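User: Can you predict the 3D structure for this chain?
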Amino acid sequence: MAESISESEAATEALAGALVAGLGAGAVVLLSGTLGAGKTAFVRGMARGLGADPEDVSSPTFAIVHEYRGGRLPLFHVDLYRLTPAAADDLGLHEMGVGEGVLAVEWPEHLGTRFPHAITVRLESMDDASETVRRITIGQSTIDDL
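Assistant: Here is the predicted structure, written as structure tokens:
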């Protein structure tokens, strides 16, 4: 596991861009953290790192899935905040990230099934007085996480 401290939204985006630089088609990134922790900012950095327009990235809370193209790989951005595990499974997420693009999932704890070998990203606020300082922990899920 790797841990970083981000002191700004730009630094969070830069870390995400560096992460996706080494990812290939079929990669899955599971993003967890409280509301406002910076998950969508992290996805914005992923989009920039893949060559998609980061200005197109917004929280898909109501649309559930957004797709960003124009980069070296498409980015599928999913927000499961409002879904039950059964409803999340009905989305067919296992097929969505496999093959042609990168799948970024916010609120992965709402998944009914797991993604073995996914990259896990945990964003945590470091200071109640600061809205921008975050601890970002990046790891990898294993078959034991199923």
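The two ends are 18 Å apart (CA to CA). The CA atoms of residues 32 and 122 lie 5 Å apart.
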